[in-house]
Design goal:
With about 220 residues, this protein is mainly beta. The protein is built from two helices and 14 strands. The strands form three sheets. Strands 1-2-3-5-4 form a five-stranded mixed beta barrel. A five-stranded mixed beta sheet has the order 7-10-11-13-14, with no helix packed on it. Strands 6-12-9-8 form a four-stranded mixed beta sheet, with no helix packed on it. The N and C termini lie far apart (about 40 Å).
Length: about 220
């Protein structure tokens, strides 16, 4: 099973999957699901993962039926996981049948004194907060070296929110095709700052010029 899970990491699995269920759980038995998760390590002979479905929903813990090579995939790695929910899935998770694992783009928020003069445009398709992470779904050129980064203004706004700026960059390659790209950005240092009421996220969204600012509040 070690070989299988290592092999899955290299696959770009194209399959129809959704975030599981309407409830805050890891999915209904037999349901095909897709979640951005954190690999927390191997225990009891299997790989374990955790995530929050949306906002501050309860932590969901999932495990497969095989291990990951921790030399290749360190605990703490963020992954896009596609899986079938197991027959004994509970509200807080359980065993799943993993059919695909992919690394996602990651970054940790950097605090800056002033807003950037410009931010790299991004064809945004969806954005969500999952605990201390912002999960970004977009279309980007399929080239090595593409990045999605996040910066925060050090001084909060008058309403207590922190201003975040997300920027996308990619090496110029006119022959590159565009592909679905997932990023998971850790904003914990800003989100957990005393007195912070939430974050206001700025994105130069080329998919919709009227959807460039997104607000996530702690009481939502």
């Amino acid at each position: 099973m070690n070989r299988l899970l290592k092999y899955l990491l290299a696959l770009a699995v194209i399959i129809t999957a959704t975030a599981c269920g309407d409830d805050d759980n890891g999915g209904t038995a037999g349901e095909l699901c897709e979640s951005v998760v954190t690999f927390t390590g191997n225990r009891e002979g299997v790989a374990w993962f955790e995530y929050r479905k949306v906002g501050d929903s309860p932590l969901i813990t999932l495990h497969g039926n095989g291990r990951l090579d921790e030399k290749e995939v360190e605990p703490g790695t963020r992954l896009l996981m596609r899986y079938y929910a197991g027959p004994d899935m509970a509200a807080d998770g359980g065993e799943v049948s993993i059919i695909g694992l992919q690394r996602v783009l990651t970054d940790t928020v950097e605090t800056v004194a002033v807003a950037p003069e410009s931010i790299g445009p991004l064809y945004l398709t969806a954005i969500e907060r999952s605990g201390e992470y912002l999960n970004i779904y977009s279309q980007m050129p399929a080239v090595k070296g593409r990045k999605i980064t996040v910066e925060a203004i050090s001084t909060p706004a008058t309403d207590g929110t922190m201003e975040l700026y997300i920027s996308a960059t990619a090496p110029d390659d006119p022959t590159a095709y565009r592909t679905t790209t997932v990023a998971s950005l850790w904003i914990g240092p800003v989100w957990n700052k005393a007195g912070t009421t939430g974050v206001t996220v700025h994105i130069d969204n080329t998919n919709n010029i009227y959807r460039k600012v997104f607000t996530f509040l702690k009481n939502d």
